[in-house]
Amino acid sequence: MTDHIELTHQQERAFQPQKLSAPRDFITPTIISENTDDKPLILEIGAGKGKHALSFAMQNPDKHLIAIERTRNKFDAFSKLAKQQDLPNLDAIHADAIAWIVYAIKPNSAAKIFILYPNPEQHNPNQQWLNMPFFEFLLSRLKVGGEIVLVTNIESYMDNAERQAAKLWCLPNSRHRVPTDSQRTHFEVKYLAREEVCWELNICKPKWYKTRFDSWHANHDRKYNSLSK
Ligand SMILES: C[S@@+](CC[C@H](N)C(=O)[O-])C[C@H]1O[C@@H](n2cnc3c(N)ncnc32)[C@H](O)[C@@H]1O
Which residues contact 189 (CB under 8 A, 6 or more apart)? Predict the structure, then answer.
């Protein structure tokens, strides 16, 4: 494997983090601002009502999960349960994950990122996660050796994600079927009960991987000039 990657894995249209406004009422979570917790940081994008987030945090007290959900009514259900369970290693965030991650997450800091049953976006494939310029920014937030876990019941979404991971983003990845007794999320329970096949893609960030955002951070580097490197 090469120890240096040319900029061929990047989309011509670059993501522009400096154009995003801070999420409303944005507060940096203590785990990030105080930097005192040495637990691996895990992100979940589109956490829904929080079924996976709550059980993951409960079963992994040695890890810290930040789970983000944009839709108000789903977030309210998640937040209510999160407050009841009061897990010290879980932050439930109501926000658009794109702007929130841009403002909150440092480069090379997340050990794992879950994207479980994303919206299919079949009529707007530009909005599928691996088709978005934002995906390069997301990769910059992932630690070397870290992993993105993408799960869907839509075979064409998975076919495209697998192709994009390999061809556009040049990332090692592996695809497998989700076991039929898995129950991580509400959508997973629903699809497997209907005997649909669900697919999981595990994408790994190798040590040679570079993005144009590796030194970009919202708090101290608002001037976006790393594209010229
Ligand atoms: C199909 S649902 C799946 C929810 C949950 N992961 C599950 O499997 O039960 C997709 C979720 O992603 C959320 N979502 C989509 N785009 C998002 C974004 N940019 N930021 C935060 N949440 C997002 C939607 O609001 C929705 O709740």
Answer: 183
Q: Specify if 122 maps to a domain.
A: yes
Pocket test for ligand 1, best of 49, 71, 72 (most atoms within 8 A of CB): 71
Predicted TM-score (pTM) above 0.85: yes
Distance 225 CA to ligand 1 centre (A): 31
**Phi, psi for residue 143 in degrees, rounded to 5:** -70, 155
> Would you say residue 86 has pLDDT above 70?
yes
Is the CB of 210 inside a 6 Å radius of any atom of ligand 1?
A: no
Cβ neighbours of residue 118 closer than 8 Å, sequence gap 6 or more: 45, 46, 128, 129, 150, 152, 157
| pLDDT tier for residue 113 given thresholds of 50, 70 and 90 | very high
Atom 16 of ligand 1, residue of closest alpha carbon = 46
Residue 42's pLDDT is 98
pLDDT of residue 10: 61
Give the CATH number of the domain where residue 162 resides: 3.40.50.150
Q: Residue 97 C-alpha to ligand 1 middle, in angstroms?
A: 9
- The residue segments making up the domain with residue 74 are 38-222
| Number of independent structural domains in the chain | 1
CA 71 to ligand 1: nearest atom: 25
Return the ∠ at Cα 142 (arms to 132 and 20), rounded to 5°.
Answer: 50
Q: Is the CB of 107 under 6 A from ligand 1?
A: no
